[in-house]
């Protein structure tokens, strides 16, 4: 993260003696990225965070992917997904994988039960809450997430997700590296710059430790070579305090300040995060182009180096009217295909002063493959909707 936080009890000097009431030492843990060369945090445990009593292979739900062939735009209807791949629908094992490449995997889940304790040792995860609420519990403390929140969970943080008041609907973006604010929004020291569409005041992190007790605690670990179930001698949520710049954090899409202009602005003005070979953008309600001859909807465009995925999560997306797109829809417009507004959208948009739309976009710089659940919920007529009359 671009700024420092301190939560709970920590000693005045790092890597020095910090004793518990009984005189024993707290166990210091450094969690850091890029081999001691990037962001990190120091956590202080009541027990050794290295003490495991068992490690066995774990059979996670199987999944597969196939190329987007024949190459065409796709429309996925998440409302038709039904239950997850396991008997219980939790926010981790219940994910329905939809699109993937070697950099990122995009899934959707409607979860009603708490997830197991889990750590993703492959890369960071970005969650988007499209409906409902969920508590993100981790070794760093708890974060309350509600509709419209993004949450970024750094690689290998032990955590679990606990739905609140019924079901929570999540779009999940799993990276093979790290996710953070675009570098152009940050100073050389990591402060948000004045042109950034959000800043430190908009971000939330854990504010106090959880301090759970327990023995022989199971944690599922997803790694590049497969899944393992570790059993920890003591509950990993035994941290009395931590400080640093690496921790789970949340940001509401409703706090994203849109950048507008006299003529139509390109998608980079909507960029919210960046990951390895992909970006995440937020389309929010906003005033639109105010040149007297402006056309507010997007022009036909062909991003020759990227695939574009859009998740429609609120409001009315004017450029897609007539295509069958609805709340919860996901569209995929691949490189090799020119896409744009539906027939009639350009004329309808002229003179419009504001758009009421909410969508999350992921642009990838390698082609996205289709996973089995995506094929089962595809609106197969979508590719031909540009041929219809307005």
UniProtKB/TrEMBL annotation:
It comes from the Bacteria. This is Homogentisate 1,2-dioxygenase. Its cofactor is Fe cation. Gene3D superfamilies: Jelly Rolls (2.60.120.10). Residues 278-383 form the Homogentisate 1,2-dioxygenase C-terminal domain. Belongs to the homogentisate dioxygenase family. InterPro entries: HgmA_C (IPR046451), Homogentis_dOase (IPR005708), RmlC-like_jellyroll (IPR014710), RmlC_Cupin_sf (IPR011051). PANTHER family: HOMOGENTISATE 1,2-DIOXYGENASE. It holds the Pfam family HgmA_C.
């Amino acid at each position: 993260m671009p700024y420092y936080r301190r939560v709970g009890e920590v000693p005045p000097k790092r890597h020095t003696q910090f004793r518990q009431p009984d005189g024993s030492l707290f166990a210091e843990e450094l969690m850091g990225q890029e081999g001691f060369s990037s962001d990190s945090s120091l956590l202080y445990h009541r027990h050794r965070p290295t003490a495991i009593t068992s490690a066995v292979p774990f059979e996670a739900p199987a999944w597969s992917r196939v190329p987007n062939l024949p190459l065409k735009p796709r429309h996925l209807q998440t409302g038709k997904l039904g239950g997850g791949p396991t008997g219980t629908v939790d926010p981790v094992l219940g994910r329905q994988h939809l699109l993937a490449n070697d950099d990122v995997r995009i899934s959707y889940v409607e979860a009603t039960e708490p997830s197991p304790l889990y750590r993703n040792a492959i890369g960071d995860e970005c969650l988007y809450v499209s409906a409902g609420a969920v508590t993100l519990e981790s070794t760093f403390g708890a974060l309350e997430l509600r509709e419209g929140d993004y949450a970024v969970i750094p690689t290998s943080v032990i955590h679990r997700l606990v739905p609140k008041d019924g079901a929570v609907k999540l779009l999940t973006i799993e990276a093979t590296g790290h996710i953070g604010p675009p570098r152009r929004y940050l100073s050389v020291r990591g402060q948000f710059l004045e042109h950034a569409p959000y800043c430190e005041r908009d971000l939330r992190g854990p504010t106090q430790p959880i301090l759970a007790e327990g023995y022989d605690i199971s944690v599922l670990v997803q790694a590049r070579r497969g899944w393992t179930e570790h059993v920890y001698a003591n509950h990993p949520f035994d941290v009395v305090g931590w400080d640093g710049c690496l921790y789970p954090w949340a940001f509401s899409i409703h706090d994203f300040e849109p950048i507008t202009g006299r003529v139509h602005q390109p998608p980079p003005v909507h960029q919210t995060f960046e990951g390895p070979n992909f970006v995440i953008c937020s389309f929010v309600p906003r005033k639109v182009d105010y040149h007297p001859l402006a056309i507010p909807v997007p022009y036909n465009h062909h991003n020759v180096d990227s695939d574009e995925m859009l998740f429609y999560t609120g409001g009315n997306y004017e450029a897609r009217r007539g295509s069958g797109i609805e709340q919860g829809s996901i569209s995929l417009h691949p490189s090799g295909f020119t896409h744009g507004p539906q027939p009639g959208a350009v004329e309808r948009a002229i003179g419009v002063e504001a758009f009421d739309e909410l969508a999350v976009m992921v642009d990838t710089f390698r082609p996205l493959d289709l996973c089995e659940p995506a094929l089962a919920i595809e609106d197969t007529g979508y590719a031909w909707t540009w041929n219809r009359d307005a």
